[in-house]
Amino acid sequence: MGNYQKAGERMKEIVVISGKGGTGKTSIAASFASLAGGTAVLADCDVDAADLHLILKPHIKQRTEFRSGHRAVIVNSKCTGCGTCENLCRFDAVRRAENGTYSIDPVACEGCGVCVRFCPADAVDFPEETCGEWFVSDTRFGTMVHARLGVAAENSGKLVTLVRNEANKTALKQGADFIVVDGSPGIGCPVIASLTAADAALIVTEPTVSGEHDLGRIAELTKRLNIPTMVCVNKWDINRSAADRIVEFAESHGIKTAGRIRYDKAVTEAQRHEKAIPEYSEGGISEDIVSIWEFITARSGCDK
Ligand code: SF4
Ligand code: SF4
What pTM was estimated for this model as a whole? Predict the structure, then answer.
């Protein structure tokens, strides 16, 4: 994971996260983007399954390759077939064909560089890997920084850090008030990269057994990272007692409840029309989301 650098102190960075995918995290992040009224820069840090672009329809202004790590490649014309690389590779990535030639399985190679260092014939190339792309785009709600990780590519934590750093630079340049981050789900490296040094985290959860369990895990993580944390219960009215338990759990762990969002078919309709929820509906669900946005911005010291 790379180092996250906070470029400016004035703007506030709010990260929307969830214990797993499919909780409504992205719909809520997109709603916040619409409610910020052009004062936010948006960062899609769910790089393994980016879908904020489906709602925000970005117009790409800048596209850059994301390079990270190396992969070993044997140059057959130089290889003497000594087998040193095969013996030394701890990841069983070196293959010996029946005709005695050697090659490296690009999926198994971890890029440790041992074969490069010890090949007596200097026959192993070690090019940098292109793992994906990142973009700076215009959207109807402001500038968005987002990325696409290549198939089977790793280093998503590093790419998340890059996206956040670029969003931070853009926000500073534009004098933005907020950075709204659609964070990675779960508790692994990408979500840690999404959260480190953020001003506030909003955990989106649902009133289910797995929602309660995931909240505990992610709350532990935000506590360890010392990020002011709030929770919102999405579709709270499909299981009111579970929603109450989530709120009790949160409050007993020092996590503020930013609000509850009712179940509403308008969410699916808004997605189908590629709109943020408050853009699409003036109903109760939008009031729920507006109230949560106001709660968060007030708590983050950035209400305007
Ligand atoms: S160590 Fe070098 S020369 Fe020996 S088999 Fe591997 S690539 Fe070929
Ligand atoms: S770089 Fe490391 S993992 Fe890849 S083939 Fe060489 S020794 Fe094996």
Answer: 0.84
